[in-house]
Give the backbone structure.
Amino acid sequence: MTYYMRTETYKEKSRDYIAAARVIGASDTRIIFRHILPNVLSTLVTFMPFTVVSAITAITALDFLGFGLPPPTPSLGELLKQGTATLRTAPWIVMSAFGTLVILLTVVTFIGEAVRESFDPKKFTIYR
């Protein structure tokens, strides 16, 4: 993520409006917080939901394999592991854990998209 942020920052730094802000005497702090950061923020907000989704998936997979949180700690991976052990007698354990995981990952992705859309500075810009 840092590579993407660095690339976006350098791309925004080379734009004409940054040069114009320097010419009229804007300080570096003002240029960073008023011009560069709002335009780079959409990149950060775009990657955040996918980072959260990958972290949830990784901890669930590690818990399922037995390498995650300690055994008495409740987690989706532990619930999936218990559900696969009792799949013939209690299939609702696996179905509820899997359904919860799918809904959680979908909701995180949709919320992230809504936040990204609200922070996008190019959405309200009109070029003629």
